[in-house]
Structure formats: C-alpha cells, structure tokens
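Forwarding these from the shared drive since the link keeps breaking.
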Amino acid sequence: MDKQYNKSLFEAKIYDAVHLAQNTSRPRFIGFLDECRAAEVQEMMSKIHFSNYLLYGGYNGAERLMFGAFPDYIKPHTEQFSISAVTATFRTCDKLSHRDFLGALLSNGIERETIGDILVGNGICVFFLQSKIANYILTQISKVGKIGVKLNIGAVCPLPQNHNFKEFSSIVASSRLDCMVAAAIGTSREKASQLIRSGLVMLDHKVNTVVSAQVEQGSKLSVRGKGRFIFDNLGPVTKKGRLSITGRKYI
C-alpha cells in the first residue's frame, strides 16, 4: 500500500513541481500515483489553470501514473518520462499474483511510489518502475516467494491484461447514481442511497454523496466492500422510457 496519505503534503508537492518547472526551465516528475491521486491532480491543475502537464504510466491505459509538469516552451511527451518496463518470466505451472510481485519489490526497500502497474499473465509478468531503480531490481530479484523468475528490461507485446472482468447488464430508471449503484451491486435503490450518503461510493475516483448525481458512459464506480465497476454503455432507451446499461465488474 502507499504511505499514509497526507492531502496537504501531497498538494504541496504537486504545486511545488509546477512552480519549479515554470521557474527552472526543466520538467519535474512525481509518482507513481494511484487513480484517486491522479484524479486529484487533474482537479488541482484545473483550479490553477495549468495545462502543460501529463500523466503517464509507461503504456496507454495504465492505472498508476507519474505526474510531469513542463515549462511553457516544452510540449509534454511520454518519451520524457523516466519509466522502464521489466519482464519477469517463470514456469507456466507456477502461479504468481500481483501481490506476490509487489511484495517482492517492496521487500527490497523499494518505495511504493516508484512502482507502477504490475501486469501478471500465464508464466509472465510485466511491471513498470522509475528507471533509476530498474537495474537495481534486476540484480536483487531471482525469486518471487519460492518461485524462480528471470528478469529482463523491456516489455513483451501484447501486455498481460491488467484486470479480469465479469460483464453485467441491467435496465434502470435513469443514470442517477443511486440507480446505477443498485444495478451494479444488485440491491435496492433505497440501500444504494444509504451507501452513497454514508460516503461508501466513489464515482470516477472521488467520493460522491449525492444520490442524484449523473453517471456517464465510461464512468468508474467503486462501492466499499462490494467491488469496482465500469459502465461501458448507457442506452438505448427502452419503449417504456427506461435505460439499458452494460458494464463490467473487476474480479
């Protein structure tokens, strides 16, 4: 897990990076950040009207992202991020998980913020690191748990899937948050409303306590103790004026 979150300290680090980028003529980088912190960064940049930044995690669709603030005369680009991919291979009969690899990395004194996504497949894992520690990791890890692994710099293509999903579909009265939560977790709107008002629901990585908030196509939902969801399609509207929805649950 990331170190205990201090909102004031986090905001100070981000604003300091922006200030230094603008005044020292060099890009400044922070991270990796989880999805919630990345969403906070986007909101912060909007408030100060700063647009010359980029969030990037080593590949398109990454969840854990580095923040890069750039001087006005430098156009942000992914190639400017110091991120390395490392591929671990192991016997396909051995089963290793995201938790196994994360534990192996942290046990070598690596801070969580230097580690990006960890993508585990059958006999293979690709993980992303700040480049400054990549070679060190290659010299330190030969086993994950009790399983022997071989590490190499670089990523295989295609990358292993970051998550597995279970698809779901439903018909709801509207795209209000209470309706969508009820459909996603299979409960009543009344119980969904209780969860929302209790601060147990996050919409697009932010706690949302407004039961009538509108959910959009592509929105991500997290319900504490119930799981995480993506709403892929909202619509079409049925003849009775109700809304068809499809989505996926993280498993």
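-- next protein --
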Amino acid sequence: MENKQTILIVDDALINVLVLSACLEDTYNIIYTTSSRECLKLANTKPLPDLILLDIIMPEIDGHEVLRQLKINSKTRPIPVIFVTQKDLIEDEEMGLEMGAADYITKPFNLPVVQARVDTHSTLKAHSDLLKKLVSEQSAKVRKYEKEYKRLFNK
C-alpha cells in the first residue's frame, strides 16, 4: 500500500473542498472540513496532516486566527499552511506570508498551479521530516558513544 501524505482542506464552501479534493486525491490522502474549529481539532489528531489548505474568510474563526493558533502550538507549528482565498490584494498576501503561511493561492483556482504548489510544499515537508529524523537518530548515537566513552575512560 502506498504511503501518501495527508492534506487537510479547510473551506466553508463545500464546492471548493470538492474541487480541491478532486485535483489532489490521486496523489494525496485528503481530509477536509468546512469548520475552522474542526480544522484545529483535525490538525492536532494523529496522524497529523502533512499540509493544510486553509481559506481565510471563514464564519467562526477566520483563517488568520487559525494560522496563529497553529503556529503557537508546538505540535502543529511544523505543518505548512497554504492560504486559499478570494483576498487577492498584495497586502493580503504579504500579511499571510508574514504570519507564517507557506504559500498563498487566490480564487478562482488555477488547478495546475494548486497541484504544483501543493507538490512543492509536500516535498519540502517530507525532506524536512526526514532530516529531523536523521538528526535525531545521529544525536542518539552520539549520546550513546559519549556515554560509553565516559564509562571506559572514567570521564
């Protein structure tokens, strides 16, 4: 069985969720919600999503606040978030990127662009996860060898 990355799509308009899902489902596992509050729950549920596509204009909690909450939580901070929104002013995009969004896609969707950006950020996330794993494994080996060295040489 393939080990696909998981994309969480968050948009209050179900049609947008369905369009994005159809674009990405061949390559990724898709989970979705039309609720900001549910997004925060799903983002904290194992297995954690590898990437979040998040609308900014949401009825309960706007996407900016959702992103802020994701970035202050150590568990969800590493998850890349791509804003997908109708807010198409340069200032909106700058604000989103300054807040920590990995990318910014405006509606209406250009599906090849969506696919390319999701692929890029998914690849970056996979490489980052692999590097963290390798560093952790090597650090554990170094600690083991340091402990053995100290035991052997009483240092």
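The first helix runs from residue 14 to 24. The chain is about 55% helix and 15% strand.

- D.
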